[in-house]
Amino acid sequence: xxxxxxxxxxxxxxxxxxxxLTRVHGSGATEVHALRGVDLSVFPGELVxxxxxxxxxxxxxxxxxxxxxxPTSGKVLVEGTDITTVSRKELAALRRRSVGYVFQDYNLIxxxxxxxxxxxxxxxxxxxxxxARVSAVSALEEMGLDExxxxxxxxxxxxxxxxxxxxxxxxxxxxxxxxxxxxGALDSETGESVLALLRARCDAxxxxxxxxxxxxFAAWADRVVFLRDGSVVDETLRSQADSLLFGQAATK
Length: 252
Prior knowledge:
Layout: E1 16-25, E2 32-42, E3 47-51, H1 58-65, E4 73-78, E5 81-82, H2 88-98, E6 99-102, H3 114-124, H4 129-142, H5 158-170, E7 176-180, H6 188-203, E8 207-211, H7 215-218, E9 223-228, E10 231-237, H8 238-246
Helix pairs in contact: 3-4, 3-5, 4-5
């Protein structure tokens, strides 16, 4: 009897790969090593939380992963493309299509309404204004903000502006979502709802990286990566992270 051929399942490819990433600011006596040879892969369906003390390199890692800053050395691959080697035009197009970024300070355009801010990346990528608005309003509805679609940023509270910024990061089919302390301006209940949305987007197939100092928000992640002085000093899976973050014994 002939052996049945075995079906091989191809391993999923990372959406984000950081390879031996370094970032040095200044030179000589003022030289600061923000990142030191960081390796990190984030796969489809995975939410990774990055934690560490102030100055550990968390925000630097995120800005480089999103193409907002260049590493001193190393590679940044988004869906297989090394974004450190592409042109500025190609990088801008890739970020609009594939990367959603949630900033600490919102970065909304004051002259645009909430819906126009959320729709802008879609329009810049060639989507018609009508279709872009439909997507924008849908994203705002997810955040419970559909009634604010036609308000300008200065007509909203800080928490509302942050949720608009998150809607902008999630609109469309973003494969990579990067969030830098996205719950900083939100109360606990709203913060939990935001993390639930990030979790749902990852469960639907996106890859997410969350910078946070809050253990209760890191608990939504599949993995927690700890940075110190620009280096990865520890990495735990979700079950292990729950025990470490909340001081619970893994075994009795």
